[in-house]
Amino acid sequence: MAAHTTDIVLGTASIALPLHHPLHTTKAAASVRLLxxxxxxxxxxxxxxxxxxxxxxxxxxxxxxxxxxQAHRTRFAPIRWSDGELLxxxxxxxPTTWEIPLFVTGHSRQSLDWIxxxxxxxxxSPRPPKMQxxxxxxxxxxxxxxxxxx
Length: 150
What we know:
The protein contains four helices and seven strands, in the order ββαβαβββαβα. The chain is an alpha/beta fold.
């Protein structure tokens, strides 16, 4: 359905990015034209099952985001990261746009300036109205800084 329309966009529930191979995530997202909602994984019990150090999940999250971006934007470019590499190969299909939109869930152990700079949006848990308004104001201010408007 998504491949035959520009009016409908599919999105994911949050993907615990450090628990998934970045190339599998890249290929799956491009194959079905998703908005990719990423998280760093907030269920510590899952990390041993994937042999991932939960203390490194923020670092792994950033690294996997970069791998996904490189795999979407390039053709046959070597991509290396701490757990692997993509050499003399490519992933298809490529997104129909420059890249798949990435939305960070929560902070994913990232700073607000990193989220504003590296993502297409930020999904945060609802808070009491006054607190939510302050969070949204902080987000907007950071996005404006990244755009050079502040």
